[in-house]
Structure formats: C-alpha cells, structure tokens
Amino acid sequence: MSRRAGHEHALVVLAGAVSVEDAGGPTGPVGPGHLVYLAPGRHEVTLSARGAARALLLGGVPFPEPIVMWWNFVARTHDEVDAARRDWEAGADRFGPVASRLARIPAPPAPPWTLRPR
User: What is the pTM of this model?
Assistant: First the structure.
C-alpha cells in the first residue's frame, strides 16, 4: 500500500485480521476495533491477512504541535479535552447531528489525572 512519507497514518481494521510489516517485524494480527499507528517516514506499508479482511487507512500531515488525545477527542490541552467532553454530553452544536439508528454513545467519565500532550 502506497502512502506519503511525510504524513502520519492510522490503520483501522473493520473485519478480519491484518498484520502490518514494520521495521521491527510484523505487528498483529490486529482485529476489528483496533488501530495501528504508522509514523511518518515511509512511502509504503505492507499488510497481510489470513483470509478476508477489510481495513481503513486514514492519514494526513502531522499536527504541528503536541496534542492530547482521549476517547474521541483531540486537543492541545487537558482543559480543551474537558470542554469537548462537556460539550459532547450537553449535545452542543459544535459536533453536529449524529445520523444513526444506533443510540448516541455517551463519553466515559473524565480521567482522574491530568492529560498531557505527546
């Protein structure tokens, strides 16, 4: 699979199981609901699967600054994540409508520690 060397990527397995060839050897197999982070620096990534599998490759230019990630939120600081969690729980317009037959997923309780950028 071809990718842009300056971009970072995430591979999300949707069905089956996929192994990802990395510099240190293969990872996996990785199943549905798991994400493999692919750091910048490679033009290609080799995937293998035993049987049918589906995966989604997401990617783009890395953030220019360290970020904080928690649950479904990405921000620059702990306070921004906390504000996003409160807004999600309040149904704020910033997230837009969720068009699904499935029930809306509430955010888990905030962690009892301070989130740090990485």
Answer: 0.60
